[in-house]
Specification:
2 copies of one chain form a homodimer. By secondary structure, chain A is α+β, with helices and mostly antiparallel strands. Chain A has a domain of 229 residues: Acetylglutamate kinase-like (Carbamate kinase), CATH 3.40.1160. The first copy, chain A, is built from 12 helices and 19 strands. In chain A, the strands form 6 sheets. A 4-stranded mixed sheet of chain A has the order 8-10-11-9. In chain A, strands 12-17-19-18 form a 4-stranded antiparallel sheet, sandwiched between helices. A 4-stranded antiparallel sheet of chain A has the order 14-15-13-16, with helices on one face. The radius of gyration of chain A is 24 Å and the shape is globular. The interface between A and B is large, with 36 and 36 residues.
Chain lengths: 399, 399
């Protein structure tokens, strides 16, 4: 919910959808910049503001939007009613700033829907058992939408975003990237965790858990968007690989010549985790002399801190050296199809080799293969894989 | 609650008051400009926005302040808890935008006070029986404070304002105007309705009705302020006249030569009221030829509209002419002392006559005498009355 103009655009969409016979419950986010404005006010008073009161403060952002959307609907002659999270009520635990939804009382919403009203709910917020206002944490509006859809057993939960769907990869990198008609929850989770920022991971998990059909759509354009469904749907027509995700937010650290002994991995990674640095890809192997080499990636912002820690550890453990590289990129192919098909990895490596791209690290999961490469070759790699797996045309790949 | 700085200043005051052993419940208003900012957002969508949703919207203003004040208290090591009107809960009727408080549930507040917490409540808002957010209308934060004080049987309700108390008259007009230590509710009501804008009339009425001792204090300076009490207190020492109120917001209309017949007053004033124009002073008399002359005052902003209406009416009723004058001012002396003393009116008229000030209209109530004069003599009149009744020195007047 960016601006008043965007609220008016959403009101138009809601009006059209209601006129075609749908019963609608809308969960909204705050207007652009509003949440940050409120956080800045609090920070001017206390850099570490009281968490309960921060929730009271930032929850006003969505409350403003529900009111404005209902005002816009009312102007269009559509009867609607707004609810804060507490009014619904969306019961959460008491973890202020990152509360989790426990239960949704749907009786007021159902009564309103039965009376022909459009219901507008403030996303991102709830109320704990003692009636305190809670928030679900950033991006929580998507989660609210999914939770409401689950509670109401809605036919579909549509998430309106800046883009018109989920693509085989970023269209800014591959010009013939294709919008997917559908993708599974698992694939979406892997795409999201790999840098595709369309949806909040938590909302997708939630939708998967409660089997809520999720559709990613554009707030601005018409179009069917991308349906995120359970694995089973159209499994027959599922291509081997659904999409290519990538990011260049990470840096690589290597510690070499660690005298190999039990507990080495724990010692290294434990120290990094204890410093609250998140670790992504991890690879370890042992050399002929039984010394171990361990490589892992962290967010680039954490590189300096991680390097200092690792150098101290290296001295302590008698390791040979520590190497850093922040000129790397991570590229993943994602697809539930690869679960039942061998040879996908070699197909991936072949496509990269053809372009002379050296693979620095490899990790795999059931439905994803990730490689770390030199950042300079990122776009080349993404394009090679996109065409290598035939993603520009629908369902044409070898099965 | 103007700015973050002002919130910090209030937090300091609260901290000091709590340390001296007081149990505190604070009702707050929105930050300066916030309510108008929200109203402007809504007006950008619909010039006549849905009233229920306007309350959802504007009530966020006070919600922001309660959170920020609690954050500021928390930084000072003071345990506090914020509540929206609905959370308290402050039960109101369903008249959105001008709701009236029906009942306050004080059990959460009492429990918090008993636990040593400072309680911060969003002013200006409540919740109706169906859980809808309501607002009490502009300036309603004072009313919330008084209602809470009444419900909690508080020792005193302190209203923090831009001024350090109630004065015998406006110090910008009379340099030796004196801060009153106390004033009765009735006097305060008369002062308020005559243009002394320190407190909302409704809050004073409410405080009088429930006998809540009210104290007007400065948010910025130290000092005892002015206590607003029941009539009985210190009646012995009450001066004849407590203060001089005035305003120049009004304009005068006169319709002359109305053929006198029953229902004339109703016909004229009814038509003005029906157009939603508020009428203040009204004077009517009958000439020798039995034709009537009626004069009344309206707010200057309404003069053009009232004049048009009155000219139409004059034709309809066969009246002679309609006169307007917007160069007038209204001056009142207020005091419960005059109830039991004759001669106050003549003392007033004498003071004005000495300065050669012509009186255009006179109205009186039990504790107030109001005159309408030429606007040019307003300051002169106020000063003459202030010294005529000896208001610059305490309790020195003739009784």
């Amino acid at each position: 919910m960016g601006t008043v103009e965007r609220i008016e655009a959403v009101a138009d969409k809601v009006a059209a959808s209601q006129q075609s016979g749908n019963q609608l419950v809308i969960a909204v986010s705050a207007m652009s910049g509003e949440t940050n404005r409120l956080i800045t006010l609090a920070a001017a008073i206390d850099e570490q503001p009281n968490l309960r009161e921060m929730d009271v403060l930032v929850s006003t952002g969505e409350q403003v939007t529900i009111a404005l959307l209902c005002i816009a609907l009312s102007k269009r002659g559509i009867d609607s009613r707004s609810y804060t999270g507490g009014q619904v009520r969306i019961l959460t635990d008491s973890a202020h700033g990152k509360a989790r939804i426990k239960e949704i009382d749907d009786h007021r919403i159902r009564a309103d829907l039965d009376a022909g009203l459009v219901v507008v709910v403030a996303g991102f917020q709830g109320m704990d058992e003692d009636g305190n206002i809670t928030t679900l944490g950033r991006g929580g509006s998507d989660t609210t939408a999914v939770a409401l859809a689950a509670a109401l057993k809605a036919d579909e939960c549509q998430i309106y975003t800046d883009v018109d769907g989920v693509y085989t990869t970023d269209p800014r990198v591959v010009s013939d990237a294709r919008r997917l008609d559908s993708i599974t929850f698992e694939e979406m989770l892997e795409m999201a965790s790999q840098g595709s920022k369309i949806l909040q991971i938590r909302a997708v998990e939630f939708a998967g858990k409660y089997s809520v059909p999720l559709r990613v759509m554009s707030s601005f354009e018409e179009g069917p968007g991308t349906l995120i469904t359970l694995e089973d749907n159209d499994q027959m027509e599922k291509p081997l690989v659904s999409g290519i995700a990538f990011n260049r937010d990470e840096a690589k650290l290597t510690i070499r010549g660690i005298p190999d002994q039990p507990g080495v991995a724990y010692k290294v990674l434990g120290a990094i985790s204890a410093a609250n640095i998140e670790i992504d890809v991890i690879v370890q192997n042992v050399a002929k002399d039984n010394s171990a080499t361990m490589t892992f990636t962290v967010h680039r912002n954490e590189l300096v801190r991680a390097e200092m820690l690792l150098k101290e550890l290296a001295v302590e453990m008698g390791a040979l050296e520590v190497d850093c590289d922040d000129r790397i990129a991570k590229v993943s192919i994602v697809g539930v199809g690869m679960r039942s098909h061998a040879g996908v990895a070699s197909q991936m490596f072949e496509a990269l080799a053809k372009e002379g791209i050296n693979i620095q690290l490899i990790t795999t999961s059931e439905i994803k293969i990730t490689v770390v490469i030199d950042e300079r070759y990122l776009e080349l790699a993404v394009r090679a894989l996109h065409s290598g797996f035939g993603l520009e045309t629908e369902a044409k790949q070898e099965r």
